[in-house]
Hints:
194 residues; alpha+beta; elongated; 5 helices
Amino acid sequence: MTEATPPLDMNRVNIPGVIAGVLTLILPFLGAWWSLTLGTDAIVVTTSPFEAKTFIFGSYIASPLFEWFCLGLKLGVMYLGVLLIAGSILPAMNRNEDLAKVFINFASRKLLWLVLIFVVALVIFVLLLNQTSSVLPVRIDIPFPYLVWTTPLSADMENMGIVIPICAKFTYAFGVAVIASVSGAYSRIYHEKL
């Protein structure tokens, strides 16, 4: 005779943890978080922690080693999503509450750190891009905020000047990443109240 499985106690489900877990699972498949376009799609760079793509006049330039690294990061982030979902549902099943706490404590803030590191890396990249005028005959004045802008790139070489528009912007996938990371961080606080 088998023991009946107790019904789920929906009051003990960590809702922010489930939301963060589901969003974290789909996040690696949403595409780039930030894009940089030079000219009218002459050079397009799209990036996220899971991919970095560069298109020069429509031709894709790739590094197989970097793509393998990104695949590993995708799998790691998906693992965090699974841990968040499992840790959020286990208390509702009246099973392994200590294990659920370990899952939530381990996975809750990792995506937040990933988002913060991504933004800091972008700011450093843009600040270095601003410094190119001292090395190259190209002048770029990127306005604040450094990560969302449209500005002209001007180059002066021997009585000839060129002005090319540059546009940088975040995508909706970055918004999903922010929501998932904040929900994940909040799931740890919420879990303590269960």
